Amino acid sequence: MEYQRYEHNAAAAELVGRHYDTPPLAFVHSYGCQQNVNDGERIKGVLVDIGYGLCDAPEDADLILFNTCAVREHAEQRVFGNVGALKGLKEKKPGLIIGLCGCMANQKQVVEKLRRSYPYVDLVFGVDGIDTLPALLARKLEEKKRILLEPAQRPVIVEGIPIRRESEFRAWLPIMYGCDNFCTYCIVPYVRGREKSRRPGDILAEFKGLVAAGYKEITLLGQNVNSYGKGLDEEEKMDFSDLLNLLCAVPGDYHIRFMTSHPKDASRKLIDTIAAQPHLCKHLHLPVQCGSDRLLEKMNRHYTVEHYLDLIEYARERVPGITFSSDIIVGFPGETEEDFQGTLDLVRRVGYMQLFTFIYSKREGTPAASYPDPTPRAEKTDRMARLLKTQDEIAMALVKAQVGQTVRVLVEGSGRAEGTLSGRLDNNLTVEFAGEEALLGQYARVKLTGARATVLLGELSV
Ligand code: SAH
Ligand code: SF4
Ligand code: F3S
Questions:
Q1: 30 and 36 in contact (C-beta within 8 Å)?
Q2: Would you list which residues are annotated within the binding site for [4Fe-4S] cluster?
Q3: What is the DSSP annotation of 198-264?
Q4: Is the pTM higher than 0.85?
Q5: Is 259 in the pocket of ligand 2 (CB under 6 A)?
Q6: Which of 99, 178, 434, 449 is the 20 to 30 Å CA partner of 296?
Q7: pLDDT given at position 144
Q8: d(Cα 279, Cα 45) in Å, to the nearest integer?
Q9: DSSP string spanning 390-409?
Q10: Cα separation, 163 vs 140, whole angstroms
Q11: What whole-number distance in Å separates Cα of residue 373 and Cα of residue 359?
């Protein structure tokens, strides 16, 4: 693995300065997962580094960048819809640069479609191109031609890319990029490339910076954080639990979350680490995808329901009060009613606090795209409705069971009712309570007094 450092591109900054009478404005919108949101924050950082200001409305912008997600068809359609809606804007403002980057831009057929059918899209670059954006923009301003880069992956990690974070108290911190797992339904390994781990020293330095800047919640990101460390040099070799221990040794008032944990690599050592480290949230997002061994094998997930439940049980023994969340795919090709009953059964047995549910979406180029998929759409939506109903009942009961406790929450924003705040518990549940805005971004102690569906209600406790 090659590690590089970002360098300020003075020539690009100078060109941007010369090209516009007043500092140009950029509108950057990120779709998809936290990894992509974090990429978006770095894209903004790079743009500011070469003289752009940032704006919240596309109408005000000289540069519009959509940082896209390809994980499901619906996500892609939304992007094409939103890009389509910019046509009029471009006609009114010919100097406007419209760009598309992120995961969709790493698919050949998407670049082709943009080339053919979206002539007003000027700039396309993939997920590994953030540090090259100044040079690309400079070329674009000089040559005035479309620049649509073909998908390419670079076996390089670029450190020190400037960043404009969206929050002053919650931060995303990528520890690795890409994915090597090739679950048969999933496009991510194709668009994000092979797994690559950042060096522990680089992660630690960014982490210390965040703690020093007052960040309270730091979420470590990777498609499979449990395989962190592959490819590191021998002398700095460590696994994910070692990394957590390294970070938790940093003194300060903060908590750490991480995602995503792949069940095949989630180890007992990891669970022991959660048990031992007070900085780690007692919550585990452990996507199971489905509760049928037959389908898990077809999905290439490399674990069984039994292995998964063993892990959950071990975690419950070692970390009292730990809660779980998961991702579920309904309607994977060939899913039978019996397979689906397995999923319902597993969901009941684990008792998830939160579930992120998706109807299978066919992704061209993945193995599952060619699997026979005879189940009618209506049947899949019916299964989804049954799953959601089951989960609602479980979550409601779990939420109610929290009432009476006094907990520490991070105050994140305003609540729904006037004069209330909303905070998040260690277990990711939300609580609303009356309080002053000055508490925003701070920890507060809250007594849980009731619940409205899956949102807790509480009052400040002293
Ligand atoms: N790396 C993470 C997940 C990243 S994608 C992990 O392995 O857990 C987030 C979620 O999207 C996945 O967990 C899966 O539930 C869902 N997903 C991925 N591909 C999908 C597809 N083709 N159709 C429907 N859901 C999908
Ligand atoms: Fe996709 Fe599987 Fe990789 Fe997660 S682990 S990103 S689901 S291929
Ligand atoms: Fe989407 Fe790319 Fe994330 S496909 S889910 S934005 S890794």
A1: yes
A2: 33, 69, 103, 179, 183, 186
A3: PPHHHHHHHHHHHHHTT--EEEEE-TTGGGTTTT--GGG---HHHHHHHHHTS-SS-EEEEE---TT
A4: yes
A5: no
A6: 178
A7: 82
A8: 28
A9: HHHHHHHHHHHHHTT-EEEE
A10: 23
A11: 13
Tokens at 175, concatenated = 């520890």
- Predicted confidence at residue 462, as pLDDT, reads 76
Q: Report whether residue 222 contacts ligand 3, using a CB cutoff of 6 Å.
A: no
Rounded Cα gap, residues 460 and 447, in angstroms: 6
Query: What whole-number distance in Å separates Cα of residue 216 and Cα of residue 433?
Result: 20
How are beta strands 420-424 and 323-330 bridged, if at all?
unpaired
Rama region for 453: left / alpha / beta (φ>0; ψ in -120 to 50; rest): left
Q: What is the per-residue pLDDT for 16?
A: 97
Q: Which atom of ligand 3 is nearest to the CA of 35?
A: 3
* Contacts (Cβ under 8 Å, ≥6 apart) of 259: 34, 219, 220, 221, 222, 225, 285
The total number of residues written for the chain in this structure:
462
Mean pLDDT, 10 residues at a time, over the chain (462 residues)?
Answer: 95 97 97 97 98 97 98 95 94 95 96 96 94 96 93 93 97 97 97 96 98 98 96 94 98 97 95 97 97 98 98 97 96 98 98 97 97 97 98 95 96 93 94 95 97 94 84
* Amino acid 352: pLDDT: 97
Q: Is the peptide bond before 406 cis (omega within 30 degrees of 0)?
A: no
Query: Position of tokens 């489905």?
Result: 290
d(CA 386, CA 371): 25
Residue 187 alpha carbon, nearest atom of ligand 1: 19
pLDDT score for 1: 84
Q: Tell which residue, 461, 401, 460, 391, has the closest CA to residue 427.
A: 401
Identify the DSSP state of 364.
T
- DSSP three-state, residue 149: coil
Strand 25-30 vs strand 53-54: parallel, antiparallel, or unpaired? Answer: parallel
